[in-house]
Design goal:
With about 180 residues, the protein is of the alpha+beta class. Helices cover about 30% and strands about 35% of the residues. The longest helix is centred in the middle third of the chain and has 15 residues. About 20% of the residues are buried.
Length: about 180
């Protein structure tokens, strides 16, 4: 799904631009993704795993997202620099088509500016406009209180906890929480 560009106001008064990324921006997307995986231990993949992705595979994935009637990737930019992204993918099997999975990433230096909240709010609003989706789902890793608090404030509720679900590179085992937001 391609979304019309929007201007959002950040907590510090600056403006940012939110839109669907173009296929020609795949290198920009990869650079952003590599950076956020370096900046936070609460992402599911390690920076090394992210670096294995190829530009061709990313281009194909973005083509599928952009041509989908419901899957959506939003990119938040300050100037020409991506500072946040939020993706929603829906189940393509008949029995799970009503469920969307939402994920988000924001560059560390922009944490606390309201970018994550704005991206999530835009994706939630888009999901409510569609006729099929009944719920959005996400998982977050124990210790990422900033994310957990954001999700709860948007109406997501914890539906489960997977003990020791994530093994950090240093060997620590962390729980993973599943959350759901009912759309209707």
């Amino acid at each position: 799904m391609i979304v019309s560009p929007k201007i959002i106001k950040l907590k510090n008064g600056r403006e940012a631009y939110v839109r669907s990324p173009a296929l020609s921006e795949i290198s920009l997307i990869y650079s952003f993704i590599s950076r956020i995986y370096d900046e936070s231990e609460y992402m599911l993949r390690t920076p090394e795993e992210v670096k294995r992705y190829t530009v061709d595979a990313g281009r194909k994935a973005l083509e599928i997202i952009n041509s989908s009637p419901c899957d959506c990737l939003l990119m938040c930019l300050i100037g020409d620099e991506p500072v946040g992204m939020c993706k929603v993918s829906y189940g393509h099997l008949v029995k799970i088509r009503h469920r969307g999975t939402i994920s988000i990433g924001v560059r560390r230096e922009y944490w606390g500016q309201g970018i994550g909240r704005k991206l999530m709010e835009l994706q939630i609003a888009l999901a409510k406009e569609l006729s099929g989706p009944l719920q959005l789902e996400l998982d977050y890793i124990d210790g990422n209180e900033r994310a957990g608090n954001l999700y709860r404030s948007l109406g997501f509720t914890v539906t489960g906890r997977k003990p020791n679900a994530v093994r950090q590179p240093d060997g620590r085992l962390l729980d993973e929480y599943s959350m759901v937001l009912k759309l209707r």
